[in-house]
Amino acid sequence: MTTIIKAKELIIKGEENILELPENLKEQVSIYWNEQKRQHPGMFNGPVYSVLDMENNNGEITLECALSDYANYKYSEIHDLGEFACRNLYAGCLLKSCEGKYIVALNGAGSEFTGKIQFIGGAMDPEDKDDVTGKLDPLITAMRELEEEAGKEIRNSIKNVGETYLITNGRKYGIGTVLQSSMSADELTTALGRFKDSTHNNEIDNLVAFGKENKDELENYVNRQDIGVVEFLKEAL
């Protein structure tokens, strides 16, 4: 079951904590990860945050986290590790074009989720912190991932930051922020093409635009989505 919460306030705590695994689990995760790398050489085991606990007080959300890694997250997807499971915290954006369409990414061959739609984003990095507060900031993650996956031209087209939502299925926690672009849906698609041609980055195959006139097309992606994308768009439209 997917839960979508509009965040009035979002507090991330415990980012200095480490999710330590018992030695036997470390060994099992390592064996599994080495097998995954042989099958998918492009996979990278970087740091990710795990959500240990969540409190929601009428939209005022507090996430208690600890630092883990992507190998543990992937292993946790297929094994019940209880308190040692990595419940990945990631952040991203839902682009909104100048004509009011919502834009999501269709994953390309460079992604392990090829063919699925998702918000443009990725795991929150320990470096994604506000310079003033020193706290993790999901908007910094979203902007960084937007530039890395879709290019500086699209990143620089953002003129307004909208509402933020928490989307979770209990195993994965996504913080999605609506970012208003000055470009149209067609212009965003063209800009992505220029970025891909110049960098050969193929994490995103294409951008998919949804407006009220094609809301019914969301049904085609029910089984081809990251958590909550279709459900969110149905509500938004």
Secondary structure elements and pairings:
Layout: E1 3-6, E2 9-13, H1 23-39, E3 47-57, E4 60-69, H2 70-78, E5 88-96, E6 102-107, E7 117-118, E8 120-123, H3 138-150, H4 152-156, E9 158-168, E10 172-181, H5 185-199, E11 204-210, H6 229-236
Parallel strand pairs: 2-4, 5-10
Antiparallel strand pairs: 1-9, 3-4, 3-5, 5-6, 5-8, 6-7, 6-11, 9-10
Helix pairs in contact: 1-2
Question: Helicity level, as a percent range?
Answer: 25-40%
- CATH top level is Alpha Beta
How confident overall, as mean pLDDT?
A: 94
Shape: globular
Instruction: Give the number of DSSP strands.
Output: 11
Do you know the CATH topology?
Nucleoside Triphosphate Pyrophosphohydrolase
Question: What is the number of helical segments per DSSP (H or I, 4+ residues)?
Answer: 6
Please provide the ordered H/E string of secondary-structure elements: EEHEEHEEEEHHEEHEH
* Biggest sheet record: 11 strands, mixed
Give the C-alpha Rg: 18 Å
The proportion of strand residues reads 25-35%
Please identify the structural class as seen in this structure.
alpha+beta
Shape-level CATH architecture:
Alpha-Beta Complex
Name the poorly predicted regions: none
**Count of discrete structural domains:** 1
Within CATH, the superfamily carries the name Nucleoside Triphosphate Pyrophosphohydrolase
